[in-house]
Design a protein that fits this description.
alpha+beta, 13-stranded mixed sheet, 25 strands, globular
């Protein structure tokens, strides 16, 4: 009997090729979209779960309570490492200290001093740690063991890095590297490459004793008042030890060790490893964080898309139900009960869903390589795994029930007498209000996505084109060390560059105007007690303002010096200090940390010190040559490739032992918003999918109406009705449904996108034109879809229409 059911089901599907194709396409697109979203969400939720003690690992983080709000850092002061181990001896604590942009020079085999000529700048993956770190986290050692990191000047490489430096990791142990052109280290072990879904991208792991023994090179600072996000401590708790108990002890630890006379009240507490990838207050050593709210949004979009696809199926199946009335009547007369008919229709739905799922897997496989455009996933993923198979199996069951149950109940409920007499009509096939409600739901979902797309695109256009307070165009950035060797050659290098016709200006600094860096500390203004907020610092030479196009609004820039003698501050600092007139600050004195009092000689117009997600920070600019690790070069627009070649040659002339790596300021700023750009693209893609699926839904409902009103259309044409009049009869109901959907979607879309915009300190308003544009797009799409099917019904020969019954 089952074989007979399947045969009949396949015959019914084949006989209605048009409807079947629409159903399969709609479901396939919906399932493939859900499959890709599931892949993204599953991957993001899997970060660092491979560690055996995942649920018991915590990071000790720091909270600063200021008078005007909270600030957070994932790091702790350097001396806290030993203090924590004294206060919590029963737990294992591991240290991880990152150094960004460090240079690695590969030395010749058998020597500890001759360079092989291989030089690399490691922007990420360069760490210092102690053996205890590997007791907290699980990493596989291919050679060596954690105790090798007890010794100074020893290092460990991952397979990937060892292959990069030596061609084969098996010959790396015993070789030497020179770090930052300062310290030679011996390779004492090899780690298996960590998975890509980890916030610990270890590449080079050097003993913590090496960093501590060379404080001026890597910034080790024994002061309890100095906290850096690069220095982090991880704790492995024993089983059944509540986090809350340790946090209470850390509160007492903070009161005991942190200075209480600073601008903030500093407190340390535990953050579970399970939150590292999702808490953007702190960040991590990986390439990104993603909020749980974003993952919920992606999941919700997937649910919306599959619901829309199921609505299509329901509407199209209902539209076909009248055509199957005689079949159902005959089956019932011949003895079929309702359960058998229900199984027949559900079987047809199951077959369609299976075909759609197969097509969805093909579409998903095609789209998988492009998934990095909408998510920060560089790893080559595969759709063939047990999670995906389980998801697809569940999807088949859910979609079959959602899409097939209502049409099956409608068809199996036909009265056989009415069915055989052709008395089945719109009054007996389902409920019109339900079908209309489903269309309203489709319209509302698509409009929410359209509004979201418009808002996201508007915001991203704003941040990419916003006036930042400085000139970001044609600025070439070179990162290097700030050691004495570099300092001794900088002036000659600068003079050589300025002789090139393609260069306008050159500046050395600790940081570009806008970056992710936040060098901050306590300060005092005009011989008052320390202020209740931190001041942020950037060091740059006298050409910093000219190179980056910064504007002085009062006073002047500082005179040339190698050390901080004069200070320039920004308008935000004066505003927070209560100084209303910028000129009044010129001549006043300021002191940062424990340094001496310095004179403010100028006020710079506010510029964005970080991304547009953050407010402009209170800032001081000063000269300090031992901090100059960034070279900013302002290029002229003519013949840039030739100028770049000349810059590289000059660099290699003055700094042959240093790797040459460049970037452009505008590209660096663009990378601030990589995740938001991805989300904006995702909105565009899924808004398009929603529009496509909603068009199929409209087509289904119009088809249903056309079938039910065939005779009415014929009568109207015989009595003189025009195609335009018939078109209006079909369209007016849908425009009313569209209006209802618009009223439903507006508050939901406004709430969702307003919450998303809260991540930006500088943001576009959600203006009425956004909603007007959304409804216009929906009206145009609906009009095209309805018109196409309505015109087909209206141009049918009225004689043929009148003979339908």
């Amino acid at each position: 009997m089952i074989k007979n059911y399947l045969k009949i089901a396949w015959r019914n599907i084949s006989n209605r090729k048009g409807y079947s194709l629409i159903n399969i396409c709609g479901l396939a697109v919906g399932i493939s979209a859900c499959l890709l979203l599931f892949t993204v969400v599953r991957y993001e939720l899997s970060y660092d779960r491979y560690h055996p003690n995942y649920d018991r690992i915590y990071r000790i983080v720091t909270q600063d309570d200021y008078s005007d709000g909270m600030d957070y850092t994932p790091g702790i002061p350097f001396p806290a490492r030993e203090a924590v181990r004294v206060s919590f001896p029963e737990f294992t604590t591991g240290t991880l200290f990152a150094s960004y942009g460090s240079q690695v020079t590969v030395l010749e085999a058998g020597t500890a001093g001759t360079s092989s000529g291989k030089k690399f700048i490691e922007e990420t993956g360069f760490f210092f740690c102690d053996p205890e770190f590997f007791k907290v986290f699980h990493f596989t050692w291919l050679a060596g063991s954690p105790p090798v990191l007890n010794q100074p000047n020893t290092t460990v490489l991952t397979q990937k890095m060892a292959n990069k430096y030596f061609g084969d990791w098996k010959i790396a142990v015993g070789r030497f590297l020179k770090l930052d052109n300062a310290i030679t280290v011996k390779i004492a072990g090899i780690l298996q490459d960590p998975p890509a879904n980890s916030d610990f991208p270890l590449g080079i792991v050097t003993s913590y004793a090496t960093a501590k023994g060379n404080p001026t090179i890597w910034g080790y600072n024994p002061d309890w008042g100095n906290t850096t996000s690069n220095f982090q401590l991880y704790m492995l708790l024993s089983e059944h030890v509540p986090m809350a108990n340790i946090n209470k002890q850390l509160l007492q630890f903070s009161k005991k060790n942190y200075k209480q006379d600073l601008a903030s009240k500093k407190t340390s507490f535990l953050q579970p490893l399970s939150q590292l990838h999702f808490d953007n207050r702190f960040g991590n050593f990986g390439d990104h964080t993603i909020s749980k709210a974003t993952l919920w949004t992606l999941s919700l979009i997937g649910v919306f898309i599959i619901i829309m696809a199921c609505i299509n199926f329901i509407n199209l199946a209902t539209a076909q139900a009248v055509g199957r009335s005689k079949e159902v009547g005959i089956r019932k007369v011949l003895g079929s009960d309702r359960l058998q008919l229900l199984g027949q229709v559900m079987g047809e739905t199951f077959l369609i869903v299976l075909v759609a799922m197969a097509l969805a897997v093909i579409l998903g496989t095609i789209g998988l390589p492009y998934i990095k455009l909408i998510a920060s996933i560089e790893e080559q993923l595969s759709l063939i795994n047990w999670q995906t198979v389980t998801f697809l199996a569940g999807m088949v069951i859910v979609v079959t029930l959602l899409a097939g149950l209502y049409p099956a109940l409608v068809v199996s409920g036909f009265n056989p007498a009415l069915a055989l007499k052709n008395k089945i009509n719109s009054a007996t096939v389902g409920k019109a209000s339900l079908r209309k409600g489903l269309v309203v739901t489709q319209f509302a979902i698509s409009q929410i996505l359209i509004i979201g797309t418009i808002v996201a695109v508007s915001q991203m256009n704003y941040v990419h084109n916003a006036e930042l307070g400085f000139n970001k165009e044609a600025l070439l950035i070179i990162n290097t060390n700030a050691d004495s060797v570099v300092q001794s050659r900088q002036n000659a290098f600068k003079e050589k560059l300025l002789q090139m016709p393609g260069i306008q200006a050159v500046s050395f600094s600790s940081d570009v105007p806008s970056s992710d860096n936040n060098w901050a500390g306590n300060f005092s203004f005009d011989h008052r007690p320390d202020e209740k907020f931190n001041i942020y610092r950037k060091a740059g030479d006298e050409d910093y303002f000219k190179t980056y196009g910064l504007q002085i609004v009062a006073g002047r820039i500082f005179e040339k010096s190698d050390t901080a003698k004069e200070i320039v501050v920004n308008e935000t600092l004066l505003r927070k200090l209560g100084v209303k007139n910028s000129a009044d600050a010129v001549g006043k004195e300021i002191r940062s940390g424990r340094s001496g009092w310095k004179t403010i000689v100028g006020v710079v117009k506010d510029f964005n010190t970080n991304s547009l997600r953050e407010e402009v920070k209170p800032l001081m600019l000063f000269q300090r040559k031992d901090r100059y690790s960034v070279t900013g070069i302002k290029l002229r627009s003519s013949n840039i490739p030739k100028t770049k070649t000349a810059i590289e040659a000059t660099w290699n002339q003055y700094f042959p032992e240093y790797a040459y790596t460049i970037s452009y300021m505008d590209e660096n700023i663009k990378r601030f918003y990589e995740q938001e750009d991805q989300l904006s693209l995702l909105y565009k893609i899924f808004a398009g999918i929603a529009i496509f699926i909603s068009c199929l839904g409209l087509y289904g409902l119009v088809s249903y109406m056309a079938v039910q009103r065939t005779k009415e259309i014929g009568i109207r044409k015989v009595l003189g009705g025009t195609i335009t009049h018939i078109l209006w009869i079909f369209s007016r109901e849908f425009f009313m449904l569209l209006g209802i959907a618009f009223l439903v979607s507006v508050p939901v879309a406004w709430w969702l996108m307003n919450n998303w915009l809260q991540d930006f300190e500088f943001r576009v308003p959600i203006s009425p034109w956004i909603f007007i544009l959304s409804i216009l797009i929906s009206i145009i799409v609906a009009a095209i879809t309805v018109s196409y099917r309505s015109i087909r019904a209206a141009i049918v020969n009225p004689i043929k229409s009148l003979r339908t019954e």
